Amino acid sequence: MSEKVTALQVAQRAGVSQSAVSRVFTPGASVSQKMATKVRDAAEELGYRPNILARAMVSGRSRIVGFVVAYLDNYFYPEAIEKLSNAMQAEGYHVLMFMASQTTGNIDDVVDEILDYQIDGLIFASVAMSSTIVARCQAAGVPMILFNRRQDMEGVSSITSDNFAGGRKVGEYLITCGHRRIGYIAGWEGASTQRDREAGLMAALTAHDIPLFAREVGNFRKEGAIEATRAMFDVPANQRPDAVFVANDHMAFFVLDTLRHELGLKVPDDVAVVGYDDVPPAAWPAYDLTTVRQRSNTMVQETVDTFIRQIEEPEDFRPRQVAIDGPLIIRGSSHSLPSKGKAQTNAGI
Question: Is the pTM of this model over 0.90?
Answer without folding.
Answer: no
